[in-house]
Design goal:
The chain has 274 residues and is mainly α. The protein has helices at 6-29, 32-39, 43-55, 58-85, 90-112, 119-136, 153-173, 179-186, 192-203, 205-214, 220-236, 238-272. The longest helix has 35 residues, at 238-272.
C-alpha cells in the first residue's frame, strides 16, 4: 500500500463527516420528502470512488466503478441477509442481522469477483437483482415511524462516525485488492447501514424491514451516478466527473419522485371513483 499524504487523509475525514452531517441536518430541518430524496443519494459510493481515484489513480477508479455497477447486487444481498437474520428486537436482533447481512454480502461479492464485467453486463446484473429482490420483498409488511430518533443529532453523529470509519476501511483495502473487489467495496451501503442499525435499535425490526423492502427501488440514483463516473473520470478528471455524477443522480431522483407522486395521485383518484 502506497503512503497516502496526511492532507488527503484529513480531507477524507472532514468531507466524510461533513457530508453525512450536512445532508442529514438538511433532511431534519426541511421535510420528510427531502429526507427521502437525500437517503437515496450516492454519498458513500461517491466518497469511496473519489478517494480511490485520488489515492491510486483515476484509471483504477474507473475500473472499480465498472465493477461497482454489479457490486450493488452484493449490497442487495446484504439487505436480504439482514432481513432473514435480524428478525428479533433489541441488540440481539441488530447483531444477528449484521452477521447475516455481512455473510450474504461476502458470499455474493466473492461470486461477482469471479466475472469480468462490462458497464452493460454490470448494470443488467443489478437490474435483474432489483427485480428479484423487489419480488421477494412484496409481502414484507409496511411499518411507519416518525423522524424522531432516526434523524436526531445523536443518531446523525453515529451515522457520520460509522460512515467515516467504513470509508477509511474501503479506501485502505482498495490499495491491496483487485479492481473487482475495490468496486464491490465501493458499493457497500456506507450511509444506509448505520441508518438501518439505528432504526432497528430504536424502533424495532419491522421498520428496518420496511427500509430493506424499499431499498432495491432506490438504487437507480446509485446506478446512474456510478455509470456516469465510469465514463467521465478518465476524460474529465475526478472533480468534474464527480460533479457530473451528482448531477445525473439528482436528475434521476427528481424524475423518480415525480413518477411516484404521479402514481400516488392516480391511485387516490381511482379510489375516489370507486
Amino acid at each position: 500500500m502506497a503512503d497516502v499524504p496526511l492532507i488527503w487523509q484529513l480531507a477524507k475525514l472532514v468531507v466524510s463527516i461533513g457530508l453525512v452531517l450536512g445532508l442529514g441536518a438538511v433532511a431534519v430541518r426541511v421535510s420528510p420528502r427531502v429526507a427521502g430524496l437525500l437517503a437515496g443519494y450516492p454519498l458513500g459510493t461517491a466518497l469511496a470512488l473519489f478517494f480511490i481515484g485520488l489515492e491510486i489513480s483515476p484509471v483504477f477508479a474507473t475500473q472499480s466503478a465498472v465493477h461497482t455497477l454489479a457490486g450493488f447486487t452484493a449490497t442487495l444481498a446484504l439487505g436480504g441477509g439482514y432481513l432473514l437474520c435480524g428478525r428479533q428486537e433489541g441488540l440481539k436482533g441488530v447483531l444477528s442481522g449484521i452477521a447475516g447481512g455481512l455473510a450474504a454480502w461476502l458470499l455474493v461479492g466473492w461470486g461477482l469477483s469471479q466475472f469480468d464485467f462490462t458497464r452493460l453486463r454490470g448494470t443488467l446484473v443489478t437490474l435483474a437483482a432489483i427485480f428479484v429482490f423487489s419480488w421477494l420483498y412484496r409481502r414484507v409488511p409496511e411499518a411507519r415511524v416518525g423522524a424522531a430518533g432516526v434523524f436526531s443529532w445523536s443518531a446523525l453523529a453515529f451515522r457520520a462516525a460509522l460512515a467515516t470509519v467504513m470509508i477509511f476501511i474501503i479506501t485502505a483495502l482498495a490499495h491491496v485488492v483487485p479492481a473487482a473487489w475495490a468496486g464491490t467495496l465501493a458499493a457497500f451501503p456506507v450511509t444506509m447501514l448505520p441508518f438501518l442499525l439505528i432504526l432497528h435499535a430504536t424502533h424495532g425490526a419491522a421498520p428496518a424491514a420496511t427500509v430493506i423492502k424499499h431499498y432495491p427501488m432506490g438504487l437507480g440514483s446509485l446506478l446512474s451516478y456510478t455509470l456516469c463516473v465510469s465514463l467521465t473520470y478518465e476524460p474529465w478528471g475526478l472533480a468534474l466527473g464527480t460533479l457530473a455524477g451528482f448531477a445525473v443522480a439528482t436528475l434521476w431522483l427528481m424524475g423518480w419522485m415525480r413518477v411516484q407522486l404521479w402514481w400516488a395521485s392516480r391511485r387516490l383518484a381511482a379510489q375516489a371513483n370507486t
